[in-house]
Every structure is written in structure tokens, then in C-alpha cells.
Amino acid sequence: MKKQLTIFGLAAMCSSLVSLSGCGNSLKQIGILQVITHDALGADRQGFIDQLEKEGFKDGENISIKLQIPEGDSPTETSMANSLALSSDLVFGIATSSSLALKKAVSDLGASTPVLYSAVTDPVAAGLITSSTDHGNVVGTSDAGPTAKNIDLFTQFSSIDKIGILYNTAEQNSIIQKNEAQAECDVKGITLIDGGVTAQNEIASSLNSMIAQGIKGLFIPTDNTVAAAMVSIKETVIANKIITICADAAATKNGGSLGYSVDYYTLGQTTGKMAAKILNGTDPSTIECSLSDSFPLELNSDFFTATGISVPAAIQAEAEAD
Amino acid sequence: MNWASVFYFLGTDVPLQALVWVIVALGVFVAFKVLGVADMSVDALFPFSAILSLLLINLGVPSILALLIAVIASMGVGFINSALHVYLKIDPLLAGIIVMIALYTPNLLMAKGTISLASGKSTIFIGLNSLFHNMIASKIFLMAIICLAILILAYWFFGTELGLSLRASGKNSSMSKANGINTNGMYILGLVISSALIGLAGGLYGQLNTYSTNDSGRGSIVIGLAIIFLGEVIFGNKSFKFSLLSLLVASIIYWLILDIIQILPDFSTTYLNLTKAIFITLIVCVYELKKTAKKKLSIRKALIIKEEN
Fold it and tell me: Is the separation of the CB atoms in A254 and A268 below 8 Å?
């Protein structure tokens, strides 16, 4: 019985491997590792794929794209990074941990496969690159949000002297933005209340406690945890007439008031341009890593209609232009 | 993926993952099988040790010493975990959960989200690489030696008088008490050993990857338990020596199956977690069915003997 089982197991394994070998061909292999299913990260990936297509690299025709999503599971992410690094001519990591995993997998192989990254707020602090020009085979775009511009938006509404910030204390990206917001608030003379949370179920109580402390405005950085819970805080901010500025367009749409945001689709396109250059033979080390440079202003008119707060004319004009 | 890279991937990723997770499985084994408690602190203790060992290296501590300090700190956490039960009478399951929640803060303070090895710093694996000039080979070589040493050490320890008392107090606490074994002391010792093993695996994992996030340990306890059950399904519950060995083989099989699933050509990762869940359900299911079948078989045998008489 035991022997039969072993033989069966081996046979099953062999047959699965046979089906694997079927996909070995001459197409350029592109491996994408995206840490978790998420609107913004998905938009980033789509921008990347669309841009490649625009530059003449179409999945299934002259390139073959393999997407892996470990859904936030670290050991699985490591395995996926190892398999992608082995089988790809170019790898693309979306978000910090996926990019780090790919970089590590490629360097362990002793290979020089180009590693592209995107949606990483501070690639230098994360240890991905040394500087935007000194980075070897690792190159990409970072999604640092326009924090100062967003804090400045608060000053366009009258009588906002105290604001809160809602973010996940475990997201490195958010911590960086919180520090930027603090610095900008100090300059503008605004008091910043720290509403850091560790899980989605703490968001409501953190928000209520900040409201009790008398905040007039709320700043939400590009934070994955809070972004996913925007719909749930919508009612509260409308009822308390709190101007909510989000650094993520989707968050603004789902429950915020307004905000300059990082456009992840554009970010993905910029990364796609770099990938196309590399596929055409450019050495990745000669490409400069870039920051997000287009920050469209998103306005959620639902919020202003519901609260009766009027939108300053300058902001209205700018939002319409975007 | 072509044949060569499929085999290369399975040949390198499987042993590497298996060697890390067999240590985790052994840690979970000590808590779950020897003591009979599901220690939930594993999911936070694993990244705790990974982050701590990287932080110490970044601060200038030699890599091997950093690993050692991380293990000792993990033992401290294990002591707190057991003390919550022994002295404060908190249910073991809850004590583990409390420690898991509490560890989130030190992890956050140390890693600030993500911690990476600072440039110019070295891990134990990078140190060894000057010998091999092949990073993956150095990693597998060193991990294999560490694992072997740990398994031999565990086999020796659980055969000593102290180790036997520990096993006895987990199997039958009141009987052990009656025989003069300090069961509270054994509970503390067991969890400290378990935490040391998890801490060792975490510290090694951090140095293998050269980065760690607060979330790095998500699902660790599930992997550990799956390996334990898989081992028992394949090898049966024979002797203690055998169950230690079966952990190693089960860990290899676990990662072999997971890695094959990942590289299947048309497998969408959307289904990955469900597939894992079904896989684990199957393992535990077969384990339980086997147990029942064995019982039925022995009853039938007994009946036959009775009829013959």
C-alpha cells in the first residue's frame, strides 16, 4: 500500500513537471511579483503592462509575462521570487517587500537580471538602491506622495488649525509620510494628532478619539490598510464636517474630500518605459531611478454637497483642469 | 520555464525553505506535541528574532553573536509566555495570543516597517560565501549543518532524564506530579526550548533574506503544524527518534508540493491560499482517518481472536 502511494506520488509529480516543460520557448520572459491584491498596486501593474504593449512588447507575442501574487505571505513570496528570478529575463517587483525579495533572489543566483521596482516610497532607506544614479541592475519608480502639497491644501480652508493623521504604524511608507506631514505642519503652525493604528478594526476608534480631540481636518497618506477601509469612515467625516485629504485618488473617491494623489497607473507606465528601454538593450545601470512626478488633484464633490462646505475657487479650477 | 530551471528552482528553493521550516516545525512540535499546547506566539516571535538579528548586525554586532542574542531574547519571550500561564493562571492558548499581540510593538520599534541589512554588513551566510563563492550553495550547506546539529541535539536532549520528564509531564501531568516531577517547571522549560527554536529559525531566516518586515511571520504556526501532521501521515507515529526524522522529510515534501503548485504554468495565484488550505485539510484528514482505521483494525483483530477461542 505504502509503495503504491509513493509510486503514485512520483507519477503525479512527473506528469506535472512534463506540463511545465511545455512552456520553455524563445519569448523574453518577464516575471512580476506583487505583494498583495490591491487597487493601487494593480493599477501600477496594468500601467506597466500597457506601456510595454505601447512600445511593442506584447504578452504572448514577443514577451511572456508571468504574474505571481503571494497575498502578503512572506515565505511564499521568497519562493516565488526565487522561481521568477530563475526563469525571467527581467523581473518587476511591486511594493517594497516584493522588490527586496526579487533583488535578493537575483543576487543569490549571481545573475545580473534587471530588477525593476515600483510603489516603493523610499528605495534608499529600504536598501534597494544606494542612490538614484548608483543602483546597478536595480531600477524603478518610487511612490512618495506629495505630502507637503497636501498639507498646504488644508490652509486653503479657513480655520483649520488642528488635523489628524490616520495610518498603519507598520507600513514604512506611511511612517515616512507621517514624518513629512509633521515637518510641514510645524512650518504651517498646524497641530498634528497622531492616529496610528495597527489593524483595520482600530480605525474607527482612532478616528473618533481624534475627533474628540477637536481635529478639523484629516490627512490620509498612501496607506494600504486605511485605503481599504475608506468606505467605513466616510459617514463619520461627513457627519463631523472634517475635510479629509488623501494622498491616494481611490481613497478620495471612496470617502475622502480631496487631495493630490500619486497616480499609480502613470507610475506603472514610467516603470514600463524603463523596462522597454532595457528590453531594447539599454544597460539598466545607466537609467536614472525616478520619483513620481505627476500629482493630479482629485475632488470628491459628494463630500462637499453632503456637508455644505464650499470649495475654494482656486481648488475647483485646478481640479477641473486635471 | 524550461526543464533546467525547473529542476534548479526545486533543487535550491525546496531544501532552503525546508531547512528553515523544519526548525520552526520542531519548535511547534515541542509546544504542540510534547507539551500539548498550541503556542500562538510563533507568528510574532519568528519576525521578532529575524528583525532583532538584522538590527544587531546593522549596529555592528558580529552576525553569529547577533543570531545568538536573538535566540536568547526569544527564550526570554518564551519564559514570559509560560510565566503568564504558570504564575498568572492564564490559559496557555490565550497566553500565546497575548504574547503575539505584545511582540508587535517591539517589532515595529526595531523594524519601522521594513528592516534591511545595511550595506557593507555581513550575515553568517555571506561570511561563509568567501569559501564557496556561490551564495545559494553556502546557504544550503550552512543550513544543513545547523539543522542536523539541532535534530541531533533534540534527539539527545529528549533522551536524557530531564527530557524524559518533560515528555512525561506533557503526556500525563497528574501522573508526572505524582512521580515527583515539577510540572510547572517542565512547562516553562518546554516553552523556552520551543521559543529558542522558533527564534533560531527566525534569526536564520532574517539573515538568509537580509530583510524582514513586521508581517514576515504570518502563517508560521500553520506551516509548522502542517509539517508535523504531514510527517505523521507519511511515517506513522512510531518512535520519538522517528518523528524527529519525519519532520525533516515532511518539511521537504511540503515545500516540494507548494513550489510545484507555484510554477504550474496556468496556476493563478488567486487560488493559492485555498489550495494551501485544501492541501492542509487533506493532510490532517488522512492523519485522523488513519488513526480511526487503526483503532477499528485492532478491535476487529481482538474480535477474531475472541471468536477463535
Answer: no
Interatomic CA distance for residues B305 and B295, integer angstroms: 16
A199 Ramachandran zone, left/alpha/beta (phi>0; psi -120 to 50): beta
A229-240 per-position pLDDT tens digit: 888 899 899 999
- Grid cell, residue A125, equals 532607506
Higher-pLDDT residue of B307 and B153 is B153
3-class secondary structure, B167: helix
Domain that residue A281 falls in: 26-144+265-291
Kindly provide the ipTM of the predicted complex, given to two decimals.
0.83
**Nearest C-alpha in B relative to A95:** B114
Q: In percent, how much of chain A has pLDDT > 70?
A: 91
Would an 8 Å CB–CB cutoff place B113 in contact with chain A?
yes
Query: Residue with C-alpha cell 506513522?
Result: B236
The cell for A149 is 502639497
Judge if A108 and A252 occupy the same domain.
no
Task: Note whether residue A106 is domain-resident.
Answer: yes
Handedness of CA B192, B195, B201, B204 (dihedral sign): negative
Q: What is the pLDDT of residues A113-157, one digit of tens each?
A: 999 999 998 898 888 998 888 899 999 998 877 898 899 999 988
Dist. CA B265–CA B74, nearest whole Å: 40
Non-local CB neighbours of B56 within 8 Å, separated by 6+ positions: B65, B66, B69, B70
Query: Which residue in B6, B223, B233, B246 has the most chain A C-beta atoms within 10 A of its own C-beta, making it the best mutation to test that interface?
Result: B6
Q: Chain A contacts of B262, Cβ < 8 Å?
A: 68, 76, 79-80, 83
Residue A5 lies in a domain: no
Instruction: List the CATH number of the domain containing A162.
Output: 3.40.50.2300
| Distance (Å, whole) CA B253 – CA B271 | 20
| A215 shares a domain with A196 | yes
Are A77 and A128 contained in the same domain? yes
Nearest to residue A153, comparing CAs of A303, A322, A297? A297
Domain membership flag for residue A84: yes
- Residues B304 and B298: their CA atoms lie apart, in Å, by 10
